[in-house]
C-alpha cells in the first residue's frame, strides 16, 4: 500500500530526532531512530491490519469514518494511523511516555472529517 503522513506526524518525528541529537547529544541514536521509523512505516504500509485497533482497545471510536490503529516502535514510540482507500495515513508520532490518553480528542478530533 502507499503511505503518506500528516504534517503533525512529520513534525513530531523530526522534533524527536532533533531532541535526541541536540539535547541528549546522541546523533547516532537520532539517525538510528530515523532508519527504524522508516522500516516501521514501510512494514505497517504492507501490513496495516497488524496495527492494534486503538478504538477497540479504548472502547470507543475517535474518528467517525476510520478505525484508528496503533503500531508500537521499540516499546518507545507510538505510530497512530488509519487506512483510507489504498493508502495508509500516518497521523501522529508520539513518545510512549507522552500522556496521550489525556489528549486523544485533541490529537485526533480534527482528522475525523478531513480524510
Short account of what is shown:
This protein is 42% helix and 24% strand.
Describe this structure in words.
The chain has helices spanning 7-23, 27-46, 54-58, 104-109; strands at residues 2-5, 52-53, 69-73, 77-84, 87-95. It has a 5-stranded mixed β-sheet with strand order 1-5-4-3-2. Helix 1 (7-23) packs antiparallel against helix 2 (27-46). The mean pLDDT is 90. It is α+β, with helices and mostly antiparallel strands. It has a single domain (2-109), classed as YaeB-like fold.
The CATH superfamily is identified as RelE-like
Q: List the strand order in the largest sheet.
A: 1-5-4-3-2
Biggest sheet record: 5 strands, mixed
Radius of gyration: 14 Å
Observed structural traits:
115 residues, alpha+beta, YaeB-like fold, 5-stranded mixed β-sheet, 4 helices, 5 strands, 42% helix
